[in-house]
Amino acid sequence: MExxxxxxxxxxxxxxxxxxxxxxxxxxxxxxxxxxxxxPSDNVEEVSDTNRADFSIPVIDLEAxxxxxxxxxxxxxxxxxxxxxxxxFQVVNHGIPVSVLEEMLRGVRRFFEQETEVKKQFYTRDVxxxxxxxxxxxxYSSPAANWRDTFFCFMAPxxxxxxxxxxxxxDIQIEYSKHVLxxxxxxxxxxxxxxxxxxxxxxxxxxxxGLTFVCHYYPACPEPELTLGTSKHTDDVFLTVLxxxxxxxxxxxxxxxxxNIPPVPGALVVNIGDLLQLISNGKFKSVEHRVLANHKGPxxxxxxxxxxxxxxxxxxxxxxxxxxxxxNPPKYRETTVQEFATxxxxxxxxxxxxxxxxxx
Length: 360
Known about the structure:
By secondary structure, the protein is of the alpha+beta class. The longest helix has 25 residues, at 170-194. It contains 9 helices and 12 strands.
């Protein structure tokens, strides 16, 4: 509901100019969320029936991937089914030590909970900067701001110099990125096989070449029923590998319902991105998801996106030739990663998939 005398543009600018994000509001002990965060009344969706046993996201054990051919085939089959049906799955025994996962989440908290003046030096809306910290990349275009702060940088193919990364999480960020890049190559191999292609096909297409490293911090919210941590969206990338803490709140929209993806200790969440749906000609699904706001917090997460994103590119991606036929013609036009990401970024989290723009 619109508040009398409410000047949204002025409120947004005041929030942005403070450079302290949502955490700054929580530190100031707000008891009601500012109007810029309140969802329009027609956007407040019922969150119910989200724990049904028949809607559990697959948890896939990768332990047998290397030495057991039968186990390998079973993993490929599970990934195929999950990618076609859910667009989401969790992986365990993925090769990244639990100690690294835990230290990465601690590093996120260290960054957001350090002295405000130190953190402010990274605050910017210039996405070409080496490290970008802000609250809501689409702050000025979205119908309601999300209850979260974020920092991100591109860790591949041209990562920042170590000294350009924040002290609070520099070492673990570099280490974790290396682990995720290795895992990404393994996942793209399995996904290639799940499409009936050579194991190296997706990596040969450079799908694993770019890594965008995005750390989210969701402070406890005094009125979580009025806002969201992250609005519903699909990921405009090839693949996402997500590390989440144990608080929960991630939901995926499947069969007309919002379904919880509960945290599994030591697991990573993997989801198909828009670009993988495009090149698989719709065989693999990029599915809408969101994050709820919560009385508990802070919730922390690290999303690693496999994509070269906004970096200049001329390489065209379209439906893979072996996956199309007379009976299954191309569903999408060719595009570059840069064109796709630029369109998606300009659109913001408006609840519609950027893939619609590229449909034939």
